């Protein structure tokens, strides 16, 4: 069987969204975002608000969220020539060095400056990724980002004039805990404390997994990823308690609702040959596409994703590509807001 060409993949997952429907700010309050609910069994589509999601949850559902915390992953440094270099943190290495993307070419051995002080040295390059190490120190390079970096809002959010403090708050879920992501698990941004209390009071269980969002989640799909059916590796963690709750729920017929593509991908990465979730801490390179048989996730809450992305492929694997693109068309027609700060979809 011939391997799929990247051009064909892009064509399958292409759609056009009006520029004025790309959200630059979150809804306020967060749960006032709009919600498209699609029932795969009845083929019914309902348009509502996220605050009313409880009305559509099956009794005693198990809600699985990603508790990752976004780090201030963007940093502006200077070269010896005084040229500004903008870098984006990707992840860290065991020796404290960091892997980064840069908007300008860097040389191996080059020293970069922060506030006129030598801050790091470029020690390696692999494809588009540079590895930088703290200058004259063994301390973790990530600490520099956490102290001096800014929140890595996606490039399509161009008109957000909120303060740095407001952006940092807006681009973080209310249950963010485990630091390490360079993008937010955006479906979880819609939750408020009031809504979580309402969900739990209604008899549902909320539990957490961790996926540290990195290149796999937001980078454009490449040909070699189609060929190998893998994405960039991202750290994931499923605790013993979360595995126990989900497995017990599965056995008793409770519905597992994944909040976002990252939660879904984590669960599908941690399933064993028996169809049970295993406690796990490590990485995943799982690339979910049409043909993937979901073993754990019964229902999915997700935002509206950028065209031609692995995230759109994951959602299409869950509900069918033609159906998903038709739901996107209806959302556009009804002036839903798209992407990270946009509205949500609940696929039952």
Descriptive report:
- By secondary structure, this protein is of the alpha/beta class.
- 24% of the residues lie in helices and 28% in strands.
- The strands form 3 sheets. Strands 2-1-17-16-14-3-12-13-15 form a 9-stranded mixed β-sheet. Strands 5-6-7-10-9-8 form a 6-stranded antiparallel β-sheet, covered by helices on one side. Strands 4-11 form a two-stranded parallel ribbon.
- A hairpin with a 5-residue loop joins strand 6 and strand 7.
- Helix 9 (310-319) crosses helix 10.
- The longest helix has 13 residues, at 321-333.
- It is globular.
- The protein starts with 5 loop residues before the first helix and ends with a strand.
Which tags fit this structure?
single chain; 348 residues; alpha/beta; nine-stranded mixed sheet; six-stranded antiparallel sheet; 10 helices; 28% strand; globular
What is this entry, summarized?
Helices cover about 25% and strands about 30% of the residues. The chain is α/β, with parallel strands linked by helices and about 350 residues long.
Topology:
Layout: H1 6-12, E1 34-38, E2 45-49, E3 62-66, E4 68-70, E5 74-78, E6 84-92, E7 98-102, E8 111-114, E9 117-126, E10 129-134, H2 142-148, H3 164-170, E11 178-181, H4 193-201, E12 205-211, H5 215-218, H6 223-228, E13 230-238, H7 240-251, E14 256-259, H8 261-269, E15 280-286, E16 299-303, H9 310-319, H10 321-333, E17 344-347
Parallel strand pairs: 1-17, 3-12, 3-14, 4-11, 14-16
Antiparallel strand pairs: 1-2, 5-6, 6-7, 7-10, 8-9, 9-10, 12-13, 13-15, 16-17
Helix pairs in contact: 9-10
């Amino acid at each position: 069987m011939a391997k799929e060409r990247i051009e064909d993949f892009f064509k399958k997952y292409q759609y056009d969204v009006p520029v004025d429907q790309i959200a630059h700010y979150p809804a306020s309050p967060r749960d006032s975002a709009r919600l498209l609910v699609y029932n795969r069994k009845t083929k019914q589509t309902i348009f509502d608000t996220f605050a009313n999601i409880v009305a559509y949850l099956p009794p005693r559902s198990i809600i699985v969220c990603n508790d990752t915390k976004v780090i201030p992953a963007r940093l502006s440094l200077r070269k010896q020539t005084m040229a500004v270099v903008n870098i984006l943190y990707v992840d860290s290495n065991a020796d404290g060095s960091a892997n980064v993307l840069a908007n300008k070419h860097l040389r191996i051995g080059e020293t970069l400056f922060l506030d006129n002080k030598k801050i790091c040295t470029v020690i390696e390059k692999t494809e588009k990724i540079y590895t930088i190490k703290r200058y004259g120190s063994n301390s973790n390079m990530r600490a520099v980002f956490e102290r001096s970096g800014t929140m890595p809002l996606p490039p399509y959010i161009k008109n957000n004039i909120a303060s740095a403090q407001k952006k940092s708050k807006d681009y973080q879920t209310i249950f963010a805990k485990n630091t390490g992501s360079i993008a937010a698990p955006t479906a979880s941004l819609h939750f408020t404390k009031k809504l979580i209390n309402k969900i739990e009071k209604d008899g549902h269980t909320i539990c957490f997994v961790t996926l540290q969002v990195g290149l796999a989640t937001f980078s454009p799909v490449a040909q070699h990823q189609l060929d190998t059916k893998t994405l960039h590796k991202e750290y994931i963690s499923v605790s013993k308690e979360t595995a126990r709750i989900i497995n017990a729920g599965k056995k008793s017929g409770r519905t597992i609702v994944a909040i976002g593509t990252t939660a879904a991908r984590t669960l599908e990465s941690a399933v064993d040959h028996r169809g049970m979730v295993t406690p796990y801490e490590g990485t995943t390179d799982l690339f979910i596409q049409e043909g993937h048989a979901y073993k754990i996730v019964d229902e999915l809450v997700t935002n509206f994703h950028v065209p031609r992305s692995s995230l759109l492929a994951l959602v299409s694997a869950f509900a069918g590509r033609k159906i998903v693109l038709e739901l996107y068309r209806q959302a556009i027609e009804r002036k839903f807001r798209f992407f990270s700060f946009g509205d949500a979809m609940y696929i039952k």
